[in-house]
Amino acid sequence: MNSRLFFMIPLAVFVVLAIYFAIGLTKDPSKLDTDVLTNQPMGNFNLIPVAGRSEGLSIDDVKGQVSLVNFFGSWCVACLQEHPFLLKLRANNVIPVYGVDWDEKNPQDVVRWLARHGDPYTKIGVDTTGETIIDWGITGAPETFVVDKQGIIRYKHLGPISQRSWDNILWPLIQELRKQ
User: Fold this and answer.
1) What's the predicted TM-score (pTM) here?
2) Which of 9, 93, 132, 149 is deepest in the core (most CB within 10 A)?
3) Tens-digit pLDDT profile for residues 91-108
């Protein structure tokens, strides 16, 4: 009897895990709760510059205009996927895109990454302490925020910006915020 129970335990664990993962696969990750900071003012930040540059990024740089604040890292595969779209925004002077680089193992990694792939950012700051990513509620990279002229966060976009998300969500919101 005990040997039968011994063999049933792994099967029971497997069934519980299979149910748990099956439920998880039905969830849409794009519908995660991203509204935590929406309509809240940006937290104060003053980030050091990327290696070799003289200017970092602070809250004063972002305020006064509708802009995007993009959290990225040279280690991030999805950031590289998003990067050409950000370069296109910069080339067409659509909107200021501010970058927050974080979790670099070597400060030179982002310098090499930007040199290799191009620099779409109006300004970049480096979050060396992790305080800024905590204040902004970052769960992964890339994440991009639409910030209005008063420094209020109006939208948080998880993952790479695509043409579809730009056309359907970000650009209409930016146009609306520019009218205010």
Assistant:
1) 0.81
2) 132
3) 999 999 999 999 999 999
